[in-house]
Every structure is written in C-alpha cells, then in structure tokens.
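To whoever picks this up:

The nightly regression suite flagged Odorant-binding protein 23 as changed. Nothing in the input moved, so I suspect the structure step. Input below, exactly as stored in the fixture:
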Amino acid sequence: MFQEFGPKIQSIAGPVHSRCVFRTGIPQYYIDNVINGIFIDEPLIKSYMTCIFKESRLMFENGELNYDLGAYLLPEDIKDEAISNAKYCEVEAKGIKNVQDRLFQMLKCYYGLDPDIFIFF
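Regenerated output under the current build:
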C-alpha cells in the first residue's frame, strides 16, 4: 500500500497509520477522501493529521514542521519541490493559531499545489 512513497516513508507509514487510526477512531473513507483531494473540515480528520505528523516526528510538539526529517524521508525525485511547497503552505497558514486547523490548511494548500507529490496515509 505504501510502496509508492519510497522505502523510508514506507517503513514508518504502516505503524503510524495503525496507531493514529486506533487513537482517533477515524473511518478509512475519511483518509481516502484526503488522499483524493477532498478536504472536509472535520475534527476527526484534523486529529488524525496531527497524530500522523507528530507520531512520525514530522511535527514538533509546538506545531513547527521538522523539515530536516522530511527531507530525509522524502524520495529524491520529489524532495526539493515537496519541501518548497510545504514551506510555502506553512507561510500561507501562519496566522492560524490552532495547530490542528493550521496543519489542515497547510495540507490542503500542499495538495492544491501539486497533488502528484501529496503523501498521505
């Protein structure tokens, strides 16, 4: 299921996904919607997004993104564009105080810039 993300992301995606589904109780179809670019403003989705980013250590407890780890995990062919898009979307969502709301808007922005490099599981 996670092979297309490259071996580094593949190694963490399954366990992180399982833990966060268990913790949040999110139905798989909510996750599938996000994968397909359907971002419904729903607390379970926001909670799941935050969980996968914190569990994978892509987000620090203060809500800041861990770009060094992101660069390490991303496949080489999308790394530069992915980091650039993430930084752009972080600036776009900067005024949003709530971490879950900010991450939701960042991921929505990121998907909108290039859905072909959107990684979500």
